[in-house]
Amino acid sequence: MLLAHPVAAQFTDSLKVVVGTTLTAATKAYQPLWITANRYGTLTDRQYDAATYLRLRNKHSLAQKPRSEASASTPHPPSLYIGYGVALSNHDHLQRTFLPELYAEVGYWAVHLRAGRYREVTGGVDPTLSSGSLGISGNALPIPKAELAVAEYTAVPFTRGWVQFKGQFAHGWLGDTPDIKGAFLHQKSLYLRFGKQRLTAYGGLTHFAQWGGTFSSGRAPSRFRDYLRILAGASGNAGDPVYQQGPIDVANAVGNHLLIPDFGIAFRQDKATWRLYTQTIFDKGVGDSSNTNKRDRLAGLKIFSSDRLVGLSWEAHHRGLLQQVVVEGIYTKHQGGPIIYQGRDNYYNNGTYTMGWQYQNRIIGTPLFLNRQTAERYGIPLDANVLRGWSVVSNRIAGLHVGLKGTLTPTLSYRLLATHVQHYGNYYNDAYFTPAKQQTHLLLELPFHFSHFSVTVAVGSDFGNLASSTAGLLRWEWFIR
Fold this sequence. Notes:
With 481 residues, the protein is mostly beta strands. Helices cover 5% and strands 48% of the residues. It is built from four helices and 25 strands. It has helices spanning 33-36, 224-232, 372-378, 384-387, and strands at 9-13, 16-26, 48-64, 80-91, 96-108, 111-117, 145-155, 163-176, 181-196, 199-211, 214-215, 218-219, 256-268, 272-279, 308-316, 324-331, 358-359, 362-363, 370-371, 392-394, 397-409, 412-423, 437-449, 453-464, 469-479. The protein starts with 8 loop residues before the first strand and ends with a strand.
């Protein structure tokens, strides 16, 4: 049988190859926050350093051509594509060569299967101007993962496009730390969006869990039946001998769980779009009246908690002197209150998975918290009264953040970040952080864009009660293709 209008296929790709070098130099032994934060772990905190890299990304798409010129304006049928990327980088005074990206993916329409180390920011925050998502901000080196996802909002059947969804399901490998070897990451999310065109609203939940691995005292539960407990956030099995190995918390959910509720609305005007969004943290739930040590009940999801990130974004639809503005407030001081077993949620810290919500000594979520490494560089006394064994030294903060970007000339744009944070430490070291420690972080970045290369000049500065440092950044990138 012959088709009256045969459909032809075309094979396209989008190969991009970039070679670059980034030079950084600071007035102190450490860099200001925004020189290194939210750059996927590619820049070190050394006073002087150079990072040289080669990055290749490509996506091959097998798409169908329109059946006729008259139908060229109609949406194309779903396309099948494959993609891959690799980045080779060297930094730390030429002492470390590593792969900040290495992945492959295959996708059909909005669904993709991806594996490897790839860049990711979770939630509705802007990846270039936000202070950072409370889930994955891009502050740490990407965690190797295998992921099945509906990556873009897709219409729910029978809703005429008024309801869309997206989500993911992933398994990751966290590598080794001094306290635990070979821990895993579980990650899943589901988002719903309502409305289309002018006004939309969305809500979603992302679930992270650190689990498995080997402690000095034994192997943590790592069987498939244990994985099912991780998926559901279920407590341990006290009668199972496997749950007697290692420092396993049987009363609460197995592993270290972190949930990020995420909500927002967007209003699209003719010339600009407004967005209002918020994220909260669920780290521990409310206490169980029958067992005060059991604090991981879903009843404690705390969607309406005072602890949250709130942002307002304005983005013009055309390039101009002021193209986008982001204003964010962040408050994480409450954490359920100071009463143990009822509060003291201690965000990003965990007594079993002692590295906390970190990967290779960098916080995975908001970089505004202070971890041990940053505290050491700032000269905060690392005694028992300050650290108390926690990986994140200051997670009770109140801050205001502003991000701006725009175009100055056809070849010159800018990005400006300004953040002021009050640090209250955590509930176990608040004596050192009383009164609260004030800290301000600034960045001005000026990228010059040309046809085959770009040059970026940036100045960052930190000052306050914790640290003071000013630094310059110079980046040169050559676009081979």
